[in-house]
Amino acid sequence: QVHVKKICCIGAGYVGGPTMTVIAEKCPHITVTIVDVNPHRIAAWNSDDLPIYEPGLEDIVKAHRGTNLFFSTDIDKAIIEADMIFVSVNTPTKTQGLGKGFAADLKYVEACTRRIAAVAQSHKIVVEKSTVPCRTASSMRYILEANARPGLRFDILSSPEFLAEGSAIRDLHDPDRVLIGNLDTPEGHAAAQALVEVYANWVDRSKVVTTGLWSSELSKLAANAFLAQRISSINAMSAICEATGADVDEVAHAVGLDTRIGSKFLKASIGFGGSCFQKDLSNLVYLCHSLHLPEVATYWKSVLDMNDFQKRRFAQRVVASMFSTLTDKKITLFGFAFKNNTGDTRESPAITVAKYFREERANITIYDPKVPDRQVWLDLTEPGVVDDEIELRKTVSIKHDAYEAAEGADAIVICTDWEEFKNLDYERIYKGMGKPAFVFDGRLILDEKALKKIGFRVETIGRSGDNVGQEYRF
Ligand code: NAD
Ligand code: UDX
């Protein structure tokens, strides 16, 4: 049995960074080196300005960096020295070729695998941390064995990561479960045991679950599909609520009290975003098609379709409520990140909504407490459509203060559930806005009654609002 002393993690992103930082924190006897091809990212990890924001992350990085936690671009050295190598690179959706728009692009996983094969000089346990299609471990094994020096052994494990952004450190400190998949061979079980021992330094052993490799890989896609499905289900209900006068929060509460259903992850919204749900569901849909299971593919695809519908429906409600035109009106978006407590905007519903508003010729102002300006410009620039930031700046502006952003606005649109939006002085905001002053709450976080008392017209996802009985659909 291997006693892990040196870990290398390839990929210093949202998963590799926090996951390995927590391993370093909880296992002072293990040296953890996180490597990446992107020198800017590594430089940022080694600076005072970390490349990602996660509550609690910075303190732990600073406490362990240079002791048993290292960030480096010297990938080969880290591979050679490690007993265990985590592959935590991105697995985006393919944008061209076979399966484009659905299949996972495995080029980065393959590049790492080939690098490991090329430079490894001793036995390695290779852990798939990236989210990958079912049976990817088998391809990795094949590539390793075909390219490594003769006689060298590799054991492959699957250990998908279940952390959510914004709560990564909490999730890593106290996970619901840690999943480890291995081949059903004595070597496979021994490798899994080596990883169990790493996690057992802080996670109760009852929560460290071992399964077969393929179950582990598929469980990650399944978990994200189930989670996304819950959001699409409640969002589908929100449309019925708006048309009938039922309140989606009340429905979610009533439904969630059934212990078989549970209350978590039933918050209606303008749609789910984030780097995982869209990508992993698409990946699952593609997998189903590849396995000649079109009905299963259609079933999971409908979760994505509902999400697109929700974003479109919300934008339509804004247009319809504002007398069917947004031309030259000032619309202020509160929030641009895909959820609170993160500066990440990947697949953020705010991007889609902003694009709908631009098509309606609105002037858009954006305020988000964490998203960097350059990211907003990047997200709203579309090659071939609006590929010019100067052109974009004519109708879009970014502010760093909520009050300044709302000044002169005709409407405020809540896109992200940031806590600070609940506690703003809306009397003050109202005074500075054009009248009638609208608030569209896409996250159900504001006190609708209090806002109406101030004078706002309020439209909330999953509630009928002032337009009850009106038709919102195109
Ligand atoms: P990311 O884009 O933030 O980070 C990936 C990093 O890998 C990048 O810094 C990139 O430069 C690096 N990289 C790519 N190819 C490389 C190579 N050949 N050698 C060295 N470095 C290389 O991605 P992420 O959000 O951390 O996601 C990583 C994986 O984890 C994905 O498969 C994702 O689906 C999965 N995942 C993500 C989350 C999440 O919340 N973001 C949660 C669970 C699982
Ligand atoms: C998700 C999974 O939760 C995590 O387990 C997996 O490892 C990665 O993908 P993440 O995308 O970081 O994590 O955030 P999550 O909290 O799941 O939120 C995803 C999106 O759903 C966000 O846009 C969020 O605002 C939205 N959401 C979430 C809702 O609209 N309603 C809810 O009830 C919960």
Automatic annotation (TrEMBL):
Domain UDP-glucose/GDP-mannose dehydrogenase C-terminal: 332-448
Pfam (any one): UDPG_MGDP_dh_N
Enzyme Commission number(s) from the entry: 1.1.1.22
GO cellular component: nucleus
Active site, renumbered: 276
Reactions the enzyme catalyzes: UDP-alpha-D-glucose + 2 NAD(+) + H2O = UDP-alpha-D-glucuronate + 2 NADH + 3 H(+)
Xref: SMART domains: UDPG_MGDP_dh_C
Annotated residues for binding of NAD(+): 11-16, 36, 41, 89-93, 130-131, 165, 276-279, 346
Binding-site list for substrate: 161-165, 220-224, 260, 267-273, 338-339, 443
Pathway: Nucleotide-sugar biosynthesis; UDP-alpha-D-glucuronate biosynthesis; UDP-alpha-D-glucuronate from UDP-alpha-D-glucose: step 1/1
Keywords associated with the record: NAD, Oxidoreductase
A Gene Ontology molecular function term of the record: UDP-glucose 6-dehydrogenase activity
Catalytic class of the enzyme: oxidoreductase
GO annotation terms (biological process): glycosaminoglycan biosynthetic process; UDP-glucuronate biosynthetic process
Family: Belongs to the UDP-glucose/GDP-mannose dehydrogenase family.
The protein's name: UDP-glucose 6-dehydrogenase
Taxonomic source organism: Saitoella complicata (strain BCRC 22490 / CBS 7301 / JCM 7358 / NBRC 10748 / NRRL Y-17804)
